[in-house]
Design goal:
Layout (H helix, E strand, L loop, with lengths): L1 H37 L14 H4 L13 H18 L12 H11 L5 E2 L21 E2 L2 H17 L12 H18 L27
Helix pairs in contact: 1-3, 3-5, 5-6
């Protein structure tokens, strides 16, 4: 009887050690990737969530000599990070079974690596763009960084064999989530977000517009 209890205790302790090791490994891995991509900052806002078709046929995506542009390098890192996130789930999630709920969980997961102070409603600095002293409110990923991240992942999904119809990054749920994050952070930080209008050069007519685009 005692020997059976000892065996059960050993099995339970071994499972707890494995679970703790997996969580530590996952957290460490994402911290390393985040640091490499932005030196500990929020995801860079380079490039926004414009349509994936904007990137498929752009000859300027690669520099001369075959080296990847800064945008393409960032997009590849983001894609590898997301794929690794799916593999680290228990059980692992195949890319073919990925849906908008996995994307939403991924965005919420990334908040722990954010560097943007977002005041809670009970905070005395709520709605103040420049609080005079620090507070205990959490750090989050900035809305602009998440918006740009989704744009890169949406393009990468189709470039890696995914179809436009099944693209989880183009889901209405993702657009709604980003809109809610934008509005909440605008109120909490006292910094309203203004949609940037496309700029056209009168001398060039309709040749080019601003490269900065946002979700509708």
């Amino acid at each position: 009887m005692k020997s059976s209890l000892l065996v059960i205790c050993y099995i339970l302790r071994d499972r707890q050690k494995r679970k703790k090791k997996n969580q530590t490994s996952q957290s460490s891995e994402f911290s390393t990737i985040m640091s490499a991509s932005g030196s500990g900052k929020d995801f860079t806002a380079e490039g926004s969530s414009s349509s994936p078709s904007d990137y498929h046929h752009n000859p300027q995506q690669q520099n001369q000599g075959g080296t990847l542009s800064r945008y393409e390098s960032q997009k590849r890192r983001d894609w590898n990070t997301f794929c690794q996130y799916l593999k680290n789930q228990r059980p692992p999630v195949p890319l073919s079974q990925c849906n908008c709920n996995h994307v939403l969980d991924f965005l919420r997961y990334l908040d722990q690596f954010g560097k943007t102070k977002v005041h809670l409603q009970g905070c005395m600095f709520y709605g103040q763009p420049e609080p005079p002293s620090p507070c205990t409110c959490p750090l989050r990923q900035a809305w602009g960084s998440l918006d740009a991240l989704i744009g890169r992942l949406r393009a990468a999904y189709e470039e890696n064999g995914g179809s436009l119809e099944t693209n989880p990054f183009a889901s209405g749920s993702i657009r709604l989530y980003l809109r809610e994050v934008r509005e909440f952070q605008a109120k909490a930080r006292g910094i309203p977000y203004k949609k940037k209008k496309k700029k056209t050069n009168p001398s060039k007519g309709n040749d080019e517009s601003s490269s900065t685009m946002h979700f509708p």
